[in-house]
What does this fold into?
Amino acid sequence: MATVNTHTSEINSAERRRAALAEVDNAPFGWYHVKTCLIAGVGFFTDAYDIFAINLCSAMIGTIYSKGGKVTANQDLGLKVASPVGTLVGQLLFGWLADVVGRKKMYGVELMLILVATFGQVVAGHGPGVNIFGVLILWRFIMGIGIGGDYPLSAIITSEFAATKFRGRMMNAVFAMQGFGQLSAAVVATIVLSAFKSAIERQADHHSIDYVWRIVIGIGMIPGAIALYYRLTIPETPRYTMDVERNLEQAEQDADFIKSGKFERIEDRVTQKVEVPKATRRDFMRYYSKWSNLKVLIGTSYSWFALDIAFYGLGLNSSIILTNIGFGSSSSKNPNVKVYETLFNACVGNIILSVAGLIPGYWVSFALIDFWGRKPIQLMGFIMLTIIFVILGFGYDALTKHSVGAFIFLYCLANFFQNFGPNSTTFIIPGEVFPTRYRSTSHGISAASGKLGAIIAQVGFARLKDIGGATGSGAFIKHIMEIFAFFMLTGIFSTLLLPETKGKTLEQLNGEEDPEDEFVHHDHEKHSGSDLGSGLRERKNASADV
It folds into this structure.
């Protein structure tokens, strides 16, 4: 009789698990989904603003603090590469921690790091005993760790709260806020620079520019500060509560929060415990020892790596591109006016690039991601980017000499197909295809692979761009475009390793949906204050080696 009761309880546990997941997967689009996108999206807006603001502020900082009024190659590289290095660390660290201690416990911590590091940059000083470039590089590295944490956390929380039929659009909407972040950085820089125009043009030492870059970077703190409270108060995702914490009642409560908007923490009562595979180093190795699982991780990681080589190589150096094709450079004979116009035109040029290619690409992807599918969009994007970079590379001399307008059009088209293509899908797919207990870790590994590509692009671009010509000539840029074309070609093949995730639940994608109820068992556990602490320690010990 006891055996029958145990079997019946296991079936009930499995049925209740499926019912709770179905409540999330089939929920109609509502206010909570909008709120989730806004909370996660504001973080990505802040991330993009902070990352790409340095593209404009680097020249301003050089005007004030570098000999000759221009940053050296090493100073420029340090400012631009510090954040991606920190981001790589943050993606791996926070990705792992979100699987070990929970999404909710880590969400907001990364934003605190970003805010503190941004404030540190704004008040950074320069003197005989300290070099401002060293101080800024340190703070940008710390800021990068926070930005890195935002990638797996925002992706996984959005994915695990989203309904199946519009999961892709929710994740795409969050990631698309990057485009507005980049645009806002350029717009804010243009406005602040304009406000100081008369002061800059009449000052021989241009010290007003020191106010400009600090204001531009500091404004990036505002949206992050607004989002912080909401991140700290968001509930744990039902999937994590059920499949990692193994608390069925709490997971049902978390799932109901999507409809009711009311959150209750279940404590000091008997709860039904879902027995599912625990996250351990041995289980992690066992899971990825299977080629069917490993090839997906390779596909997500390499696709992001290949994409970011071109994405960050272009994005962080767009001012260099614009300067070398003769767009926006000042022709004034007055040195003070020339300083202002050069900075101003670089800002305007970045606005043009954002509006012409970056933002439209994100939102075309948003419109089609749940209709056409992730894999076709990524394949199409890599194919188009391969063709565009071949044209830009091999036709560079002819285009820049005889048709600058065509070059700018193709450059914007490359931005468009990066975002209506692999830049969006490389963020979305890793948030869907891995099991709950390793979803954040695996997304972090994939994202960190992309950031490795960004670092290689930055270091390579800085060291290669002037080969064959004078310093600042950009003589090797055409060959860099050809290198980008090669990596876009390899991205086509890595995409073939990935499954299509459109219209499938997260459990269908990663094998956690067992029709015969063998995936789920249960136990009863008294959750008193001390028992909760003991249970958490047990889970941490079981997961510590992941």
Q: What stands out?
A: Residues 89 and 220 are 22 Å apart (CA to CA).
